[in-house]
TrEMBL record, chain A:
Residues 21-140 form the PX domain. Residues 1-23 are annotated as: Disordered. Residues 1-20 have a biased composition (Low complexity). This is PX domain-containing protein. Residues 322-352 form a coiled coil. Pfam families: PX (PF00787), Vps5 (PF09325). Keywords: Coiled coil. InterPro entries: AH/BAR_dom_sf, PX_dom, PX_dom_sf, Vps5_C. Gene3D superfamilies: Arfaptin homology (AH) domain/BAR domain, Phox-like domain.
From TrEMBL, chain B:
This is PX domain-containing protein. The lineage of its organism: Eukaryota, Viridiplantae, Streptophyta, Embryophyta, Tracheophyta. Residues 21-140 form the PX domain. One of its GO terms (molecular function) is phosphatidylinositol binding. GO terms for cellular component: endosome; membrane. Residues 1-21 have a biased composition (Low complexity).
Length: 400, 400
């Protein structure tokens, strides 16, 4: 039993008695390594646990973004049906700029990623997770270079695969391919909800980002204005000049407040919205996997039927190929049963996952919007107070 | 004695007993006339007065921008030494757009312009003012087109003349021309102050305008955000969806507040700052006139001296050109005395004007900055209240 942890991903001190199992992970201390095009960021991943499968109470490893991708892809392949927690985008452009804000947001997102895996009752038992959290750096690098198949691809290619899968799902939904899709009205409703949600979320996130930008611009404008008014005050002298100076200083103070709030907006609101978008995209990938599994099950069921017909025919004509045909038939039957099992497992897991997702998202979004409103109220309050404190002086000036 | 009026220029009902003199003017009802390139705006100018020089208690005439320019230029020529109230810029670009805001700002500025003239103890007695306020439209058009000399020039040419004058003043101040300038340390201080003031004011006004723009952009951003979040709410359903919808609605409400405040900022703060800039430019034009008058006085004094020397020489030689020379000398002496009187009048008037200017400007600017701080405080208060009212609902959502 793993202790539940908050999504903020802070490492939780093990207050529980040493017999109670815990797994606590944190991603910290981003450090820029390498030069130019080769530059990358390394993170410290600290694991605190008393689980027997792990080495000792604390383990610290160094990981880079592509290691997280490795973990994500392995989990995606092995745990079909489960919504694998999403990764932050590998932004090729921003990497070169490596702004401290970008680095902070990425570190936070990676920490959230690992913690969600460690909190998930199925995913936390994954061997790949243990490898990720404990293997030394050389082993990790060796594993990365050994990757074959889709694992060997760069993230850009993975995006392409996702896009193919997405378009395939759309084709299936739109009925462009041969209609090998489930006729499950509740599932149709879910798919429709997910696709609509992604669009609206992306819109909301885009505008939330613009809101951050506008806060910054207003802050900059207030700062420039404050400086100009202070110069005016120095030029005027007398009581009017003093008023100008006070107003200028106040403007600069408020400019600071606005910049701080813009940063808070970004970290506590816009980023969670972006995270929500990624989660929904992860669900779309699982929807595609389910469609694949369904199609495979159908194809195998059809193929078996044909094989059975053929086998009966061969038996009737007493052909000497009967043995071979029977062997193939049994093989296919096993595959078919396996495919059916896989599909049904995905369905079952998805049903649980949907519930888990809805609950978690309601909580996360509630917190995010709460933070948004609180931050806005706090900022506005500070601004109102600042200007009001200036009014008596201005009144004195305009009446004198 | 003219009843004092506020520079807001609203027409004041004559509460004073009918025997007390009053002159009340207002510029109202802008109407767009003409088409395309020929389009212009006409204004109603309403004069209420009991002064004998005026026709009857109330007179309404139709005037256009170039009529105001006519009045300004005539006053500038006739009342050297007095800071003629400034006109709003003739913006050739904005005219074609004729936004309601532009029209309102221009009307307000023209109303202030005429009222300042009507309140000025010297300018209010001007015959040109009476013509402007009373002549029928055909007469006005005839007068406008009859202008010769500098009056016949378009406003852009005036700008060029002002620029020439300004550069001439700069040349004089910098001592590039022959050093025919007053050696008056207090006056030097004043000139220096005026030039410095203009720079700082222009900077402050520019940033005040940007502040208005940023308010609008933030408002627009909040509106877009609100719409996107409402769509998200409709898609989600359940309690989270309801929270989204309320947040979206609140954002749209605040967007409207921001747009209103942006407009207030423009009318009650940025425009007064711009008016201050124009007033300072008017002072610079008067500074140039004073320099011209000083130079003329000096030149005539020198020429008179030379003529006197020449006359004495001719008298000694008993030349028959003595009579002619004496006439010329007398004429020059009269001109020289006139020029000296003119210069001294300008000096005297300017001294009074500076005091009047400083007082009026301290008052105007005090009011403008007071309005600024009040408006900002009011806006911030409204925003703080709006977000705070939402927080309990969001708290309920995130804890459920």
């Amino acid at each position: 039993m793993i202790t539940t942890r908050s999504i903020s991903g802070s490492s939780q001190s093990p207050r529980s008695p040493s017999s109670q199992p815990y797994l606590s992970v944190s991603v910290t201390d981003p450090v820029k390594l390498g030069n130019g095009v080769q530059a990358y960021i390394s993170y410290r991943v600290i694991t605190k646990t008393n689980l027997p499968e792990y080495q000792g109470p604390e383990k610290i490893v160094i990981r880079r973004y592509s290691d997280f991708v490795w973990l994500h892809d392995h989990l995606f392949e092995k745990y079909k049906g489960i919504f694998i927690p999403p990764l932050p985008e590998k932004s090729a452009v921003e990497k070169f700029r490596f702004s401290s804000e970008f680095i902070e947001m990425r570190c936070q997102a990676l920490d959230t990623f690992v913690n969600r895996i460690a909190s998930h009752h199925e995913l936390q038992q994954s061997e790949d997770l243990r490898t990720f959290l404990q293997a030394d750096e050389e082993t990790m690098e060796r594993l990365m270079s050994q990757e074959t198949g889709i694992f060997k691809r760069k993230p850009a290619d993975l995006m392409q695969i996702f896009k193919d899968v997405q378009s395939r799902v759309s084709d299936v939904v739109l009925g462009k391919e041969k209609p090998v899709e489930e006729s499950n009205p509740e599932y149709e409703k879910l798919k429709h909800y997910i696709f609509e949600l992604e669009n609206h979320l992306a819109e909301a996130q885009k505008h939330a980002y613009r809101l951050v930008k506008r806060h910054r611009e207003l802050g900059q404008s207030l700062s420039d204005f404050g400086k100009a008014v202070k110069l005016l005050g120095a030029c005027e002298g007398n009581s009017l000049g003093k008023v100008f100076s006070d107003l200028g200083t106040k403007s600069e103070t408020l400019s600071d407040k606005l910049q701080k709030e813009a940063h808070q907006l970004l970290m506590n609101f816009e980023e969670p919205l972006k995270d929500y978008v990624r989660s929904v995209q992860s669900i779309k990938a699982t929807i595609a996997e389910r469609a694949n599994a369904f199609r495979r099950q159908c194809e195998l069921a059809e193929t078996i039927k044909l094989k059975e017909i053929n086998l009966n025919r061969l038996i009737l004509i007493r052909s000497d190929k009967v043995g071979e045909a029977e062997f193939e038939y049994n093989q296919l039957k096993a595959e078919s049963e396996e495919a059916t099992r896989m599909f049904e497992k995905i369905m079952r897991l998805m049903n649980e996952e949907i519930v888990r997702f809805q609950e978690q998202k309601t909580l996360d979004m509630g917190i995010a919007f709460h933070e948004f409103a609180k931050g806005q109220a706090r900022l506005a309050n500070g601004i109102a107070t600042a200007w009001r404190s200036l009014l008596p002086k201005l009144e004195a000036c305009s009446s004198s």
